[in-house]
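To: structure desk
From: M.T.
Subject: fold request, one chain
Message: Could you run this one when you get a chance? Sequence is below, nothing fancy, just the single chain.
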Amino acid sequence: MIQPCEYLELPPDETPVWRFLSLPKFLALLDARSLHFARLDLLEDVHEGTIPGISLDCDSMLRVTVHEEGRSRLHTCEMRPILRDAKDRRSSTWVSCWFAARHDNDAMWKLYGGQDPDFAVAIRSTVGRLKSVLTPCTDHVYIGLVSYDKTELPLHVVECYFRKRPCFTHEQELRVLISNSLGPVRGNRPVIPIPVDLATLIEAVIVSPRSEHWYSLMLRSLLDKLGCCDVEMTGSTMSLQPGY
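Reply: Done. Structure tokens follow.
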């Protein structure tokens, strides 16, 4: 179930989002008919779940205006419990990471296309499609853009998982998050599959700009056999030839 969270920035439903995949990962998606969520503490960036520039040893105090019975008062609380809670929950939190942009991206093809870039695949969806396929999920699901330059202290532990350092700005990430602490218990598996309706999730499949025509035909046939006949199959905009 999608959880509303005023502390996260959720773009409009029509916003395009992308997943760049190696062929094995794309086939795993089709075979399982599930999105695979990776455990946060196992991601490559060891700073996941932390607030850039703030440590557990900080003595920062969070000051929030609280409205009660028509009056406002300034409430002060210590930051350390929020940061410690965020750190402890990393091993029971899973994420699915998407690239939020209108077009595909050369860096994303190279970073996530796998060891054989000729067979890389991207799936294009939208924020609205993601929300639609994840609404039936019994877990608590949070969706929002990752912030790379936000310096304000977090107001909620979930906000800690949507902050990254500025050196990751190129990712332009829209993050989908599931946490044990916020929903049903799932153990501590490194990856969890969440069943989704592929025909609703996938708006288009884009083949690598380095792929050959037969590869597109093979993927088209595979999608049709899986009941995804309405899913568009197209080449990368990077495949367009110069006009001279």
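Reply (cont.): Helices lie at 23-32, 80-88, 106-112, 127-134, 198-201, 213-225. Let me know if you need anything else for the meeting.
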